[in-house]
Amino acid sequence: MRRLLIGLAFSLLSSATLAAELKPFHASYTADFKQLPFSGTAERSLSKQAGDTWQLNFQAAMMVASLKESSTLKLEKNQLVPLSYQYSRNGLGKSKKIKQSFDWSAKTVTGSEKGKAISLPLTPGLLDKSTYQLALQEDVAAGKKSMRYRVVDGDDIDTYEFRVVGSESVKTKAGRIEAIKVERVRDPSQSKRETQLWFAKDWDYLLVSLRQVEKDGKEYQIVLEQAEVAGKPVKGR
């Protein structure tokens, strides 16, 4: 099982500036591995904590695997500022654990991955592998067509690029939902992976579906089952 994957013009880096305030949400999904004869479940949520702090969680589980991902972040001058990140995966291959702490006063990201200590320079706009997904959601809501994020990925800092493909109607258990389709931009000569995401137009651009194809051809997809945005149940047509 892989992490879910999730601006300005491609010549610039997104600073994750929000066009509107964050809204809490909770969504459940069906999770499907195309190579396996059974499905699983997934949940994604954003909840308000004390002050300007928020908690972003994702977890998925099925018979042979489980994944948990969590970010603590804050809003500062309408920008997403990560504070901590944790990730754990069990099953479907080797187990994996990641911990990251963002010390903005010391301008350093410290933590560990697979037992190996990491320490990286922390600069404005840097995001973790969960918070960038929230930044992507907010940038799509703001009407941006191409986005780029600097993300802490293992013991390095990578640039993730996305582009809006267009509008599509997605069939879910909550009804048919009008969505914006976004895809990860990769160099095909460097990576065979594919990532596509759909965000609900009428529901604060909540993630409706995500499809991931790995370089070995294995495919994973989640599709919305039910959700609430700011306490209001999501309903399609």
From TrEMBL:
Pfam families: DUF3108. Residues 1-19 form the signal peptide. Keywords: Signal. This is Dehydrogenase. The lineage of its organism: Bacteria, Pseudomonadati, Pseudomonadota, Gammaproteobacteria, Pseudomonadales.
